[in-house]
Design brief:
By secondary structure, this protein is α/β, with parallel strands linked by helices. Helices cover 31% and strands 16% of the residues. The protein contains 16 helices and 20 strands. Bound molecules: flavin-adenine dinucleotide (FAD) and NADP nicotinamide-adenine-dinucleotide phosphate.
C-alpha cells in the first residue's frame, strides 16, 4: 500500500503515449492492466493519493458494499479470485480498499499511475488527444479512457450561511483519513440516502446528540450481514467462473443465489405475495426488489412491497410520529434501494432526533447550527450525506473538447448522449467506462466495469490489426441508442421519482434517465456491434 502523502515514483512520462486513463478506481486499474497486456504505452492520472476510487474517498463510518462480497470483486484472473478472502457477506470499505491495493500490488500497477494529479482538460487535436493536468503538465495520447466513476463528484448543496458554521463540516464522499472524534458532540446529518443510512446508526453511538435532517424519506431493507460461511465460500470457489456466468445472466448482473422472481404479483395469491416479501426481507439486501417479476413495472405490485416496508417501519420505530416521518411515499426501488444495519431502530435512541425539511428545506446554516422553519438546531459538527452529481458531474467538470473544438458540455446540454454508454459522437478515440447509456449503476459495477474494459481493449486491438487509427460513434447510431435507453426506462417505474438516476438531486440538471436497464441484452448488443466490425462506428 502506498504511504499517504508521498509521491510514488512513476515510470518516466513519455510526451506521446498510446493511451491515457483518467482514474485509478476499479475501472482504471483493470484498464491499465489490459492496456499493458496489449503492449501500449500508458499513463494513469488519479486525483486521489492512492488507488481505490470510491473506496478511497468514502471512508465514512459504516461504509460498505451492498452487493455481496463474493460477487463484488474482479473475475478476470482466476488465481486472484481464488486467493482473496472476504470476511463478511457485505464487505466493509477498509476491506474493499485493501482488496484494491492488493490488486495494484499483485499486478504491479502503481508504476504507471500518477497520483495527486487531476486531469483538467483534454482536447482532440487530430489524431491525438492532448491531456492537461492541474500540475501544468500536458501529454498526448491516441486513446483517452475516462475511468472517472459515476459517483465521484460530491454534491455540496449551496445552503445559505454554510461558510459561517463554526464547527467542522464533512461530506461522506470526501471523508477525512483521520477519523473525526464525535464523542460528546452534537452532530447533524443532512440527507437520508444510502450513505446516511449506513452511517447514522454508528454516528448515533458515537455522538452525544445526533440530528438528522430529512428531505425525502427513503426505503431501506436490512442487510442481514454476517461473517462468511467457509462452506458457502468453498462452494463458490469450487467453480467460480460458473457462478460469475450465472450472475452475468441476471438483469442487474448479480444475485444468482436468489434470482429475481419471474412471476408477476397478480399471478400470486395475497398469502403467496406476503410470503415472498417476508422471505426476501429475512434473506436481506437488495434481493427484496426481486420478490415479484413486475415489482418495478407495475404500480400495484410496487405499492404492495412499499406498504410492506412501511409496516416494518411502524413495527421498529416506537414513536408513531417519527415512524410516519420515516415512511416513504414514493415508488420503492426507483430511487436506489438502501441496505442497512439497524437504521430504523436508531430513531428509538434518546440521543437521536429527526427533523423534517421536506416542506421548507433548510432556512440557513448559522455559526451555531442549522435553522429549519425558524427553529434552531445547535450543532458542533455537520455531515453532508448529500450524494453526488452522478454519472455526468465528474466528466463535465473536465474541459473535454472533441472534433472542431466542440465541448462535452455543449454536446450534453440536453442530457448525456452516448453510443452504448462507451463513446460520444464527435469525440474520436474517447472511451467512457460505465458511462450514461450503459447498465453501470443499475448493476454490480465491477461486472460492468470488466465488460467495458474488455470491450475497449478488444476494440483498440482490432483497430491496430486493421490498420485503423481512429474510431468514432456515428451520430445516427448514437441518436438511436439514446432513444432506446429512454424507451427501455419508460417501460418501467424507474423514471417516476426524483432520483439521481434522472439528475433530480442537482438543481438545473436536465432530467434524463441516465443508465440502461438490463445487463444481458446490453452485453449481447456490445458483442454484436464488435462482431459486425464495430457497427455504428466510423473506423478510419
Ligand atoms: P471510482 O471508484 O469512482 O473511481 C474514479 C476515480 O477517478 C476516482 O478515484 C477519482 O478520484 C478519479 N478521478 C475523477 N476525475 C478525475 C480527474 N479529472 N482527474 C484525475 N482523477 C480523476 N457499486 C456496486 O456495484 N456495489 C456496491 O455495493 C456499491 N457500493 C457503493 C458505495 C458507495 C459509498 C459509493 C459511493 C458507491 C458504491 N458503488 C457500489 C458504486 C462504485 O462507485 C462502483 O462500484 C465502483 O467502485 C466504481 O469504480 P470506478 O473505477 O468506475 O470509479
Ligand atoms: P443520495 O442517495 O443521493 O442521497 C443524498 C441525500 O441527501 C438524499 O436524502 C437527498 O434528499 C439529500 N439531499 C441532497 N441535497 C439536499 C439538500 N440540498 N438539502 C437537503 N437534503 C439534500 O446519496 P448517497 O447516500 O451518497 O448515495 C449515492 C449512491 O451511492 C447510492 O444511491 C448508491 O448507488 C451508492 N452508495 C451505495 C452504498 C451501499 O450501500 N453500497 C452506500 C452509499 C452509497 P432527496 O432524496 O430529497 O434528494
Amino acid at each position: 500500500m502506498r504511504e499517504s502523502g508521498t509521491v510514488e515514483e512513476t515510470s518516466r512520462p513519455a510526451a506521446r503515449l498510446d493511451i491515457v486513463i483518467v482514474g485509478a478506481g476499479f475501472a482504471g486499474l483493470y484498464m491499465l492492466h489490459r492496456a499493458r497486456a496489449l503492449g501500449l504505452s500508458v499513463r494513469v492520472f488519479e486525483a486521489a493519493g492512492d488507488v481505490g476510487g470510491t473506496w478511497y474517498w468514502n471512508r465514512y463510518p459504516g461504509a460498505r458494499c451492498d452487493v455481496e462480497s463474493m460477487e463484488y470483486s474482479y473475475q478476470f484472473d482466476e488465481a486472484l479470485q481464488q486467493e482473496w478472502r472476504w470476511s463478511e457477506r457485505f464487505a466493509t470499505q477498509p476491506e474493499i480498499l485493501r482488496y484494491a491495493n492488493h490488486v495494484a500490488d499483485r499486478f504491479d500497477l502503481r508504476k504507471d499511475i500518477q497520483f495527486d494529479t487531476r486531469v483538467v482538460g483534454a482536447t482532440y487535436d487530430e489524431p491525438m488527444w492532448r491531456v492537461r493536468t492541474d500540475k501544468g503538465e500536458e501529454v498526448s495520447a491516441q486513446f483517452l479512457v475516462m475511468a472517472t466513476g459515476c459517483l465521484s463528484c460530491a454534491n455540496r448543496p449551496e445552503i445559505k450561511g454554510l461558510d459561517s458554521f463554526a464547527g467542522p463540516v464533512y461530506h461522506t464522499g470526501e471523508w477525512p483519513h483521520e477519523e473525526p472524534d464525535f464523542a460528546g458532540k452534537r452532530v447533524g446529518v443532512i440527507g437520508t440516502g444510502s450513505s446516511a443510512i449506513q452511517s447514522i446508526p454508528i454516528l448515533a453511538e458515537r455522538a452525544r446528540m445526533l440530528t438528522v435532517f430529512q428531505r425525502t424519506a427513503n426505503y431501506t431493507v436490512p442487510a442481514k450481514n454476517a461473517p462468511l460461511d467457509p462452506d458457502f465460500v468453498a462452494r463458490i470457489k469450487a467453480d467460480y467462473p460458473a457462478f460469475r456466468a450465472r450472475n452475468s445472466l441476471q438483469i442487474n448482473a448479480f444475485g444468482s443465489n436468489l434470482p429475481r422472481s419471474s412471476i408477476p404479483a397478480r399471478e400470486l395469491s395475497p398469502a403467496e405475495r406476503r410470503a415472498a416479501l417476508e422471505a426476501r426481507w429475512e434473506y436481506g439486501g437488495l434481493f427484496f426488489l426481486g420478490a415479484f417479476g413486475d415489482l418495478l413495472l407495475d404500480q400495484a405490485a410496487n405499492d404492495e412491497a412499499a406498504e410492506f416496508v412501511r409496516e416494518r417501519i411502524r413495527g421498529s420505530v416506537k414513536d408513531p410520529g417519527v415512524a410516519r416521518l420515516l415512511s416513504p411515499g414514493q415508488i420503492i426501488g426507483c430511487k436506489r434501494l438502501c441496505v442497512d444495519t439497524g437504521y430504523y431502530a436508531t430513531f428509538n435512541r434518546p440521543n437521536v432526533r429527526l427533523v423534517d425539511i421536506s416542506a421548507s428545506g433548510i432556512d440557513e446554516i448559522t455559526p451555531q447550527g442549522v435553522r429549519v422553519n425558524g427553529a434552531s438546531h445547535e450543532l458542533d459538527a455537520l455531515v453532508f450525506a448529500t450524494g453526488f452529481d452522478a454519472m455526468t458531474g465528474t466528466l463535465l467538470r473536465i474541459d473535454i473538447r472533441g472534433r472542431d473544438g466542440k465541448t462535452l458540455q455543449d454536446a450534453w446540454r440536453a442530457g448525456p448522449r452516448t453510443y452504448l454508454g462507451l463513446s460520444v459522437a464527435g469525440f474520436p478515440n474517447l472511451f467512457l467506462i460505465t458511462g450514461p447509456g450503459s447498465p453501470s449503476v443499475l448493476t454490480n459495477m465491477i461486472v460492468s466495469i470488466e465488460q467495458h474494459v474488455n470491450w475497449i481493449a478488444d476494440c483498440i486491438a482490432y483497430l491496430g490489426q486493421h490498420g485503423r487509427a481512429t474510431i468514432e460513434a456515428q451520430p445516427a447510431a448514437q441518436e438511436a441508442w439514446v432513444e432506446h435507453v429512454g424507451a427501455v426506462a419508460d417501460r418501467t417505474l424507474y423514471p417516476m421519482c426524483n432520483s439521481w438516476y434522472v439528475g433530480a438531486n442537482i438543481p438545473g440538471k436536465t432530467r434524463v434517465f441516465m443508465p440502461l436497464l438490463g445487463f444481458p441484452p446490453y452485453v449481447e448488443k456490445c458483442d454484436e456491434v464488435a462482431a459486425k466490425g464495430y457497427e455504428g462506428f466510423e473506423c478510419r
